[in-house]
Write a structure and sequence with these properties.
mainly alpha, 7 helices, 63% helix, elongated
Length: 125
């Protein structure tokens, strides 16, 4: 059977290919060293969320998130939900989720029919 080949796009891909070849040559050594990865996004997510939510309730020139810009508000809530999902199983997930729930609980946000629909569809999944 012919070996499956792939293109090498950079140093990381070359390292993965060399590691796979070494693991095929010595499976006992590859099984002895499990690879774990640290979620490096979690600390950054808190800073990004604080920057996104810093002045979200203030009307800026041309931007009114809680008024006429409900599309932008929906995108902001989607991004915050993605941050919470990406930082799951880390200590940073609790303040991220608390910030998202605080925004969702605000009277200006929960009054939008799009947000209510998103919340009910999100909880039903």
């Amino acid at each position: 059977m012919a070996a499956v080949s792939s293109r090498i796009w950079g140093k990381v891909a070359l390292h993965k290919q060399q590691h796979a070849a070494a693991a095929a040559a010595n499976p006992a050594a590859a099984a002895a060293a499990p690879r774990t990865f640290r979620n490096r996004f979690a600390p950054v997510a808190i800073h990004w969320t604080s920057m996104l939510l810093r002045d979200c309730d203030i009307k800026h020139h041309g931007i009114d998130l809680f008024g006429r810009d409900s599309l932008l508000l929906g995108r902001l809530l989607t991004v915050l939900g993605s941050f919470v999902e990406a930082a799951a199983a880390t200590p940073a997930a609790v303040p991220l989720a608390a910030g998202l729930l605080e925004v969702l609980r605000a009277n200006e946000v929960s009054g939008h029919k799009e947000v209510r629909g998103m919340m009910t569809s999100g909880f039903c999944e």
